[in-house]
């Protein structure tokens, strides 16, 4: 027996070597023959889409600004601005008012100031540049910039109505900048003149600058080391506060006679103008113990007797844990401490009155945290937070995937809104959002847009993105039904994070995939209900390890399995049915199926919305190696979902909640159909366990493994390799219970077919046990049954009419295979040679042609692999989906491409983009449709689709009934169906594709792709003519980069991606849509009048005499406003004369004024060259000469006319004198 075993192994090795040699010879022969007979078709197509129709432009950005650094508020315009560490400023107002202003460089913005009610914003960046922004128009622009060359800016202040910007530097000096011209004044407050002469150390950088509310000539300066100086502008003298304790911040009383300081020791001191050198009052709000410093303090008044004291910090330091908190003291009442979950960056008190010299009437506190923004209502008891209409909490849990639908049905949006309105946060203030400035955007697209974000905590959020705004609709806890096993607590890869989301907009089915191999199908239910989740276990698809020493202790043998069945839903590790041979195939970890979760069983009451219906668990390769889910697909019309992993493919029947079939990557190249099996005859209430193969059958498999050669084993039709998929009975939403025959029958294999079992690769078919039907709402058990099964019964529906089992059609490089029989005989060799590390990368359902010469289309699944193979599988859908299962028939068609397959899309004979069939949404208790439509959905309007050229004859339907576009990493192929002739091809020279989707620009079909360089490339369809390429991402990415999961391409040339960990950005490649979005933008600045504290209205409407912007645009200064600005102008404006000129020259070395792009554009528009000026002067001179000559001529004519008139007048006088005056 040993000799025979050795001889058998040698024969098997020789046979495999011969098969590989035949394969190489067949491929070489195919290549030689294809040189002279390539299967190509030449057509001429007229496409209306032109390159000028495409442009990449950002539409809007949503979310919390990444790396927020500073905050500013305009109490008149009711706008708030947030500066970021990436050189951008986000301005927020009412819902829909969300603008981003980007600086020329990406240096951090760490200081912000509004020119209140002027439509201007001042920003200070980390490169020591100060910019003046004008946002009076739809597109904000920079008017002026000031580059500081010697000193870095550390503080900035602009008084209400003031015309001079105060800049504090790291060297302790204070400079003055005229807002109208952005020129530095020669007046400088030097640090050595501001501090006490007795102080012999440098006070440090300027930390804060604040002017007196009633006298702008008095300036309070806080230095880094706790020194406070009160500088008097006219006299150039300073008064100083005591240095004990050191001061961190200060705030003025509105009457200007007192100020409050926050100190390093957590205390608060009040000083009076009568004697600044002594503390008038001191208190420690959080006890007498050691407290942390107070970083910021704000002293506000609702009335003269009602004061608000708001400060951050000052908490006790006994616990040695920094607690970020905001403390509010109102009058004599107790302190209210609001602890924050994140570090506090800064806060601003929102005032109803913009003037600083009167009670400000605060109504809220805007708090900027490290990764969040919140608004506290000071008018409500307990100070609750106000619900923000802006989507600033997208990143509350890190976003792991994004899906974008730019044309969502309105009924789905309404249904999500209805179920999501009950999920509103509790404990929020009932007050409306007070920062309601600006005019909101109009909807540029006119479509209902839906965005789904998957998060790390396993939740999914549904957002309405219509109207250029992002509003939360519904939250789904997609991981609530999973429970982590104790055995996996130490594993780092176990996570509830969402990896991919598939939503069928028509049937409302939702397929969610997790990073740890968990897949769940959700069904939308409008009412609250009780359901139980059906569980389908996926077999181990990865190839088994090399044979090890034999052992009879493992496997399914023994009586313990019979006596003690285990529940599949709750087991931590299952013995792997995909490697049911004896321990000759087991690894060091044993023949075990490793899953990191268990599903909470039992009936659970669930709220309306998306409810879990079916769950699948993909086993891991080992306790430290996840078999990742690389692709998923869902089709409601076929009732099938596909799960692709790095090792193979599994198909699940969502109607029966059963596993249809499972392949390893090598088996995908086979040509054997799955047996069609009728379901058993158990009642709804029965729950029969699944029977495992008999001992004799297992022994035959083990013997085949020990021999190590190809052995034709006739598999018993009732013996699945993996049998947790017995086919559940109809769920309540499927209507009436199914009628099943009394005695179950199983399908028998066609004559002459047998499975090839290899001990080295473990290639075996995983069949579905259809001998028993198990209700969806019941548990699923696994146990051993040594009894004999009835192998007789009705044969399966043959697939001969569909060409199942026919020769393989391999379309490689655009040419048909001429050695199909050889490829079919060596299918396993191909699998071994090319699929050792092959995984599924794309899945697409479609009703199409799968074989050359097909007369009619049929349901199919196209599987793309990482090795560039696109494999077509036929789906034979039975009329009765309750009692009959789907049969999967390999078509034999394999289309090869360069690189991993990314996507596949189809067009019909009129070159209209089509999508697979779908099933309309129906209520849970609605009757199921007797027949499901299998008509593809046409997306493109036929009037806008490409047409044949005038000289091109129409191609017959036998050759071109459909067009499939296959996108891989390195090329795009357009193939005609059913002739499988290559129409067009586009090959990438250097940069591969990582993502692709069919879309429409101006209604015309095109292909939108993302390249590895972070570029968006647009191609026409079907000719693949390049239309546009622009940079979208700042870095390069790979096909498996997480950035690809956080990006989604959609219809109408729209797309969305995570521009930062907390921001979503929507863009378009359609020039027409970009123009519409630009025109539909709202307004940030709205002219408003401010009430004069002395009565009447102040002309601060943005266009009055007091507006400095009016002076900027007209070239003259405006009328000074505020308390004492005339005195400041007299002090700060440079005096003419030699000294003034010298001072101006010296200030140019400190800072240099740079005109903004707007000013440069105006100068370029109005500027002319010297030659042009000379030509214009000469032309004017000639014109002047001509005019002078015309004047001389006119004068001469007038002279002649005057002389003629004088002669005539003289003659008339003479005549009248000689006339007789008497008549007698």
From TrEMBL:
Record carries keyword Manganese: no
Biased composition (Low complexity): 798-811
Lineage: Eukaryota, Metazoa, Ecdysozoa, Nematoda, Chromadorea
GO cellular component: plasma membrane; SNARE complex
Family to which this protein belongs: Belongs to the WD repeat L(2)GL family.
The organism of origin for this protein: Pristionchus fissidentatus
Compositional bias annotation for Basic and acidic residues: 561-570
Biased segments, Polar residues type: 812-821
Gene3D superfamilies: 1.20.5.110, YVTN repeat-like/Quinoprotein amine dehydrogenase
One annotated GO biological process: Golgi to plasma membrane transport
Annotated Lethal giant larvae homologue domain residues: 283-384
Annotated protein name in UniProt: Lethal giant larvae homologue 2 domain-containing protein
Chain residue ranges for the region called Disordered: 543-592, 716-763, 781-821
Molecular function per GO: GTPase activator activity; myosin II binding; syntaxin binding
Presence of the UniProt keyword Cell inner membrane in the record: no
Swiss-Prot/TrEMBL keywords: Exocytosis, Repeat, WD repeat
């Amino acid at each position: 027996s040993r000799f025979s075993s050795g001889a058998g192994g040698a024969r098997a090795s020789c046979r495999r070597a011969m098969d590989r040699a035949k394969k190489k010879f067949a491929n070489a022969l195919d290549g030689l023959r294809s040189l002279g007979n390539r299967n190509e078709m030449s057509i001429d197509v007229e496409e209306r889409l032109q390159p000028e129709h495409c442009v990449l432009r950002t539409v809007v950005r949503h979310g919390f600004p990444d790396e927020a650094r500073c905050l500013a508020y305009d109490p008149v315009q009711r706008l708030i601005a947030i500066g970021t560490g990436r050189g951008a400023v986000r301005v927020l107002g009412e819902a829909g008012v969300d603008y981003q202003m980007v600086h020329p460089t990406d240096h951090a913005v760490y200081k912000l100031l509004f020119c209140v009610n002027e439509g201007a914003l001042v920003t200070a960046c980390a490169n020591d540049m100060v910019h003046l922004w004008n946002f009076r128009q739809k597109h904000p622009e920079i008017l002026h910039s000031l580059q500081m060359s010697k000193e870095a800016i550390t503080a900035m202040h602009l008084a209400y109505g003031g015309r001079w910007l105060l800049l504090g530097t790291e060297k302790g000096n204070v400079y003055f900048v005229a807002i109208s011209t952005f020129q530095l004044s020669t007046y400088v407050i030097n640090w050595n003149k501001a501090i006490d002469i007795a102080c012999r150390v440098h006070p440090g950088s300027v930390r804060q600058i604040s002017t007196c509310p009633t006298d702008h000539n008095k300036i309070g300066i806080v230095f880094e080391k706790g020194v406070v100086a009160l500088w008097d502008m006219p006299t150039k003298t300073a008064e100083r506060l005591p240095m004990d304790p050191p001061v961190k911040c200060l705030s003025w009383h509105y009457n200007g006679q007192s100020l409050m300081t926050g100190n390093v020791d957590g205390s608060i001191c009040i000083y009076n103008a009568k004697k600044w050198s002594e503390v008038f009052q001191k208190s420690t709000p959080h006890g007498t113990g050691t407290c942390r410093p107070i970083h910021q303090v704000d002293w506000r008044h609702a009335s003269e007797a009602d004061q608000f004291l708001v400060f951050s910090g000052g908490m006790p330091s006994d616990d040695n844990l920094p607690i970020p908190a905001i403390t509010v003291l109102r009058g004599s009442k107790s302190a209210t401490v609001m602890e924050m979950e994140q570090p506090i960056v800064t806060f601003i008190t929102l005032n109803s009155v913009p003037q600083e010299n009167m009670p400000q009437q605060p109504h809220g506190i805007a708090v900027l945290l490290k990764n969040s923004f919140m608004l506290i209502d000071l008018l409500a008891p307990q100070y609750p937070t106000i619900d923000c209409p802006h989507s600033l909490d997208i990143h509350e849990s890190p976003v792991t995937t994004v899906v974008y639908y730019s044309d969502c049905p309105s009924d789905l949006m309404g249904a999500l809104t209805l179920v999501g309105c009950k999920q509103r946060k509790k404990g929020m203030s009932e007050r409306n959002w007070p920062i309601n400035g600006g005019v909101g955007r109009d909807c540029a697209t006119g479509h209902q847009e839906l965005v789904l974000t998957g998060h790390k905590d396993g939740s999914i959020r549904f957002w309405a993105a219509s109207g250029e705004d992002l509003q939360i609709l519904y939250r789904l806890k997609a991981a609530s039904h999973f429970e982590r096993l104790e055995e996996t607590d130490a594993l780092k890869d176990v996570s509830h994070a969402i990896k991919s989301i598939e939503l069928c907009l028509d049937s409302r089915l939702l397929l969610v995939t997790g990073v740890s191999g968990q897949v769940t199908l959700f069904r939308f239910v409008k009412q609250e209900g009780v359901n139980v989740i059906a569980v389908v276990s996926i077999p181990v698809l990865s190839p088994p390890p090399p044979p090890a020493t034999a052992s009879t202790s493992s496997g399914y043998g023994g009586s313990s399995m019979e006596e003690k069945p285990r529940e599949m839903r709750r087991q931590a590790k299952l013995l792997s049915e995909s490697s049911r041979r004896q321990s000759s195939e087991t690894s060091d970890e044993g023949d075990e199926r490793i899953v990191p979760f268990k599903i909470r069983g039992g009936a659970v009451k669930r709220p309306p919305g998306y409810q879990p219906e079916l769950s699948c668990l993909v086993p891991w390769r080992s306790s430290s190696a996840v078999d990742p889910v690389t692709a998923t697909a869902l089709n409601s019309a076929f009732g099938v979902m596909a799960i692709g992993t790095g090792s193979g493919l599994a198909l699940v029947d969502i109607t029966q909640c059963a596993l249809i079939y499972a392949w390893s990557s090598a088996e995908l190249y086979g040509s054997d159909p799955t047996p069609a099996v009728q379901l058993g005859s158990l009642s709804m209430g029965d729950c029969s366990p699944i029977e495992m193969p008999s001992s004799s059958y297992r022994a035959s498999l083990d013997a085949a493994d020990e021999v190590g050669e190809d052995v034709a084993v006739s598999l018993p039709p009732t013996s699945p390799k993996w049998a947790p998929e017995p086919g559940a009975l109809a769920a309540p939403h499927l209507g009436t219970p199914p009628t099943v025959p009394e005695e179950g029958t199983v399908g028998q294999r066609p004559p002459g077919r047998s499975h090839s079992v290899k001990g080295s690769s473990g290639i075996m078919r995983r069949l579905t046990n259809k001998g028993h039907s198990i209700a969806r709402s019941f548990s699923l058990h696994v146990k051993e049954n040594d009894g004999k099964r009835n192998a007789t019964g009705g044969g399966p529906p043959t697939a001969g009419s569909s060409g199942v089992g026919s020769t393989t059609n391999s379309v490689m490089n655009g040419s048909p295979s001429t050695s199909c029989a050889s490829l079919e005989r060596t299918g396993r060799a191909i699998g071994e040679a090319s699929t050792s590390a092959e995984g599924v990368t794309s899945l697409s359902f479609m009703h199409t042609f799968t074989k050359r010469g097909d007369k009619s289309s049929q349901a199919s699944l196209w599987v793309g692999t990482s090795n560039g193979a696109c494999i077509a599988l036929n789906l034979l859908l039975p009329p009765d989906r309750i009692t009959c299962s789907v049969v999967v028939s390999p078509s034999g068609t394999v289309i090869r491409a360069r690189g991993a397959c990314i996507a596949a899309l189809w067009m019909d004979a009129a070159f209209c983009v089509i999508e697979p069939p779908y099933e309309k949404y129906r209520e849970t208790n609605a009757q199921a449709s007797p027949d499901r439509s299998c008509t593809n959905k046409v997306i493109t309007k036929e009037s806008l689709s490409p047409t044949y050229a005038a000289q091109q004859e129409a191609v017959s339907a036998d050759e071109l009934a459909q067009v499939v576009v296959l996108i891989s990493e390195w090329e795009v192929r357009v193939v005609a169906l059913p002739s499988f002739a290559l129409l067009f091809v586009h090959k990438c020279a250097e940069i591969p594709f990582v993502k692709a989707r069919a879309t429409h620009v101006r209604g015309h079909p095109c292909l939108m792709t993302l390249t590895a360089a972070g570029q968006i490339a647009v191609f026409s369809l079907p000719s693949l003519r390049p239309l546009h390429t622009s940079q979208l991402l700042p870095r390069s990415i790979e096909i498996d980069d997480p950035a690809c999961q956080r990006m989604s391409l959609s219809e109408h040339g729209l797309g969305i991606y995570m521009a930062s960990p907390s921001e979503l950005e929507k863009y378009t490649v359609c020039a027409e849509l970009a123009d519409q979005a630009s025109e539909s933008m709202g307004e940030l600045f709205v002219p408003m009048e401010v009430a004069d504290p002395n009565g009447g209205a102040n002309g601060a409407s943005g266009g009055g005499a007091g507006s400095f912007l009016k002076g900027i645009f007209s070239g003259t200064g405006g009328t000074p406003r505020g308390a004492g600005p005339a005195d400041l102008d007299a002090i700060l404006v440079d005096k003419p004369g030699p000294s003034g000129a010298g001072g101006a020259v010296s200030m140019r070395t400190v800072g240099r004024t740079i005109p903004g792009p707007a000013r440069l554009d105006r100068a370029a528009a109005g500027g002319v060259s010297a030659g042009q000026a000379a030509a214009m002067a000469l032309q004017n001179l000639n014109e002047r000469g001509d005019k002078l000559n015309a004047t001389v001529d006119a004068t001469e004519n007038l002279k002649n006319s005057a002389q003629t008139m004088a002669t005539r007048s003289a003659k008339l006088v003479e005549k009248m004198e000689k006339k007789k005056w008497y008549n007698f």
